[in-house]
Amino acid sequence: MTRHKGIPASGGIAIGKSYVFRTDLPVLGDRKVDSTADELRRLDAAIQAVAARLRELERGVNENGNSERAEILALQLEFLDDPSLVGEARRSIQEQSLNAEAALMRASDALVEEFAKVEQEYFKQRADDIRDVSVRLLRTLLGLPEASLAEVPPASVVVARSLAPSDTATMNTANTVAICTEVGSAISHTAIISRSIGIPSVVGLGGLPVNDYSQLIVDGDEGVVIVDPDEETLVRYRQRKEAWETRRNGALSRATEPAYTEDGRHVEIVANVGSPTEARRAPELGAEGIGLLRTEFLFLQRNTLPDEAEQYDVYRRIFEPFPTGPIVVRTLDVGGDKELPSLKRLPEGNPFLGLRGIRLSLSEPQVFRTQLRAILRAAVGHDVRIMFPMVATVDEFRRGREQVRVAIRELEQAGTACNASCQVGMMIEVPSAAISAFQIAEEADFFSVGTNDLTQYTLAMDRTSAFLSSQADPFDPAVLFLIERTVSAAHAAGKWVGICGEMAGDPLALPFLLGIGTDELSMVGGRIAKLKEAIRGLAARELRDVVGECLRLPSGSEVRTFLARYSEERGARS
Ligand code: PEP
Ligand code: MG
User: Is there a domain that residue 252 lies in?
Assistant: First the structure.
């Protein structure tokens, strides 16, 4: 028996036999070719073959009703036309007489590097997509067979170096009980898919010494994998697995019911959404509305900006599943380290502190108002609220709000129907905004705390840095102080306040966030059932004391230890 520690990526316990998924490629070298025309033909033939295969896979998953995975494949198909990928590869063949494999790898590596640098999860997923589609093209060029997880035997634990989006798109999920990968992080594609399927997953394991059919225990809560367990360990984990399954089934069956604490306090639970597919799935996962619509997805991977009509159509599709619930639409949050190809700006020395979020929108009023008009028109008949990202000062908020007024005037003058009574609020994710929250709350209709960026900017620690991941902690007393201040400020002005950073979906943070009086928590759909269940296990009357203790403690790790102990004791009492 051996025990291996990795990163917990999707919770729960699974016991099964390993299925080792091998996708290794031979080491490829550069080669000069005699005929660039022949090489271009080889590349085009590979592109066509891969496109045909991806379309076939897309049809298959669509027929099985798996729209999320169909969407991944549709996106990959788009990369087969992408000038920065295949266009670049063609150029290297033509200009440098490179062989197609090397030309493709160069273009792919450059693009992956560019996307992977960006902090937002969306871009990291696109980096996986590019890598995936490039490996498919390479295997085709090299005449290697397709690697597939479609035929895994029942009760398999899939073990891989990493899993690409199209691997998981075709994976036999009925037969897969858990996923383990050597590389990856808690926000990698594998982790996201495992959470959406609801199976345990451990990533970042390094080498895992297994062959096919080894017995494995996967503990997705602790991030532990046990290979060839002894009988006593097996018995212990079987009991834990049964208890986990009972808890999960209970939580899922109550996911669409509202969440009240034991003593009757209601908290609105809403979803973070980044595509029409996610919006469609959110209500069945228990979302009462959308707490954060990240609109960036509409603007990326294209050389022209989406016009008002296109944006209007997409927003309508996203709002449709929510006839009554609140829908918080965040205006474009790009800039910084990610330039939109369609919006050329001068490079900045320190882009994280540069023209990001609302600052970029304010510097491009036409682009900003096009988005605002599309939102306001699509909002007719819905409770839509407009939210600005990265606001640092009351002046930025005022200027943003003025643009909303202008957009409404433009629509009314043109006789176009719009929802002129949308609330207008802002994210609190820059420390200055939290510090000035009492003044800003007089003017904003609501706040939503972006704990991801608030942590990054308060502690001056890059949220994506591998060196700082354990220290850039939202439980740090400085961050807790700013969150508490924000909630107090909103309530003093009679405004509502939500949390939409990752912390909102973390059950450990719940006693603190409820204790300070947060009105709404917004998180990825897959976390809702569990969080609602955690709310049902708390009593609001006890939480003021919990908050007091959290704010007194000197470090994030001490806050975590205290909250873990509190939750354990609370669980034992109820
Ligand atoms: C945040 O910063 O907490 C947030 C929700 O925004 P994003 O993660 O999109 O930057
Ligand atoms: Mg943010």
Answer: no
Tens of pLDDT, residues 442-463: 999 999 999 989 999 999 988 7
CATH of the domain at 68: 1.10.274.10
**Are 192 and 291 found together in one domain?**
no
Coil, strand or helix at 16: strand
217-229, pLDDT tens digit by residue? 999 989 999 999 9
**Are residues 230 and 272 both part of a single domain?**
no
Pocket (CB within 6 angstroms of ligand 1)? 120, 292, 294, 333, 429, 450-453, 500-501
pLDDT of residue 531 exceeding 70, the answer is yes
Q: For residues 293 and 280, give the distance between their C-alpha atoms in angstroms, rounded to a whole number.
A: 13
**Distance, CA of 108 to CA of 121 (rounded, Å):** 19
Q: Residue 192 above 70 pLDDT?
A: no
Q: CB of 95 within 8 A of CB of 30?
A: no
Beta strands at 496-499 and 446-449: parallel, antiparallel or unpaired: parallel
Residue 461 to residue 552: CA distance in whole angstroms: 23
Beta strands in 118-188 (DSSP E): 156-160, 176-181
| Percent of the chain scoring above 70 in pLDDT | 93
Look at residue 341 in the predicted model and tell me its pLDDT: 73
Res 197 pLDDT > 60: yes
- Given 105, 121, 142, which residue is the final one in a domain? 142
Whether 286 and 262 share a structural domain: yes
Tokens (6 digits) for 291: 């707490």
Instruction: Give the residue-averaged pLDDT of 304-332.
Output: 95
**Partners of residue 330 on adjacent β-strands:** 294, 387
- In this structure, the answer to whether residues 561 and 478 fall within a common structural domain is yes
**For residue 447, what is the domain's CATH number?**
3.20.20.60
Same domain, 417 and 534: yes
Distance 361 CA to ligand 2 centre (A): 15
Q: Is the pLDDT of residue 165 over 70?
A: no
Q: Reply yes or no on whether the pLDDT at 144 is more than 90.
A: no
Specify the number of domains making up the chain.
3
Judgement on whether residues 415 and 379 belong to the same structural domain of the protein? yes
Q: Note whether residue 245 is domain-resident.
A: no
* Residue 136 sits in the same domain as residue 156: no
H or E segment to which residue 389 belongs: none
Q: Which atom of ligand 1 is nearest to the CA of 449?
A: 3
In a domain, residue 27? The reply is no
Residue 106 within a domain: yes
Q: How far is the CA of 447 from the centre of ligand 1 (A)?
A: 13
Q: Give nearest CA residue, ligand 1 atom 1.
A: 450
What mean pLDDT value characterizes the chain?
90
Nearest CA residue ID for atom 8, ligand 1: 452
Supply the range of the domain harboring residue 205.
Answer: 2-22+148-235
Which residues are identified as catalytic?
A: 189, 500
Is residue 68 predicted with pLDDT exceeding 70? no
266 sits in which H/E element: strand 266-273
- What pTM value is reported for the model? 0.73
The distance of Cα 113 from the centroid of its chain, to the nearest Å, equals 19
Lowest mean pLDDT, pick from 127-136, 389-398, 410-419: 127-136
Count of all residues that appear for the chain in the document = 574
- CATH number of the CATH domain containing 177: 3.50.30.10
**What are the DSSP E strand ranges found in 452-552?**
496-499, 520-523
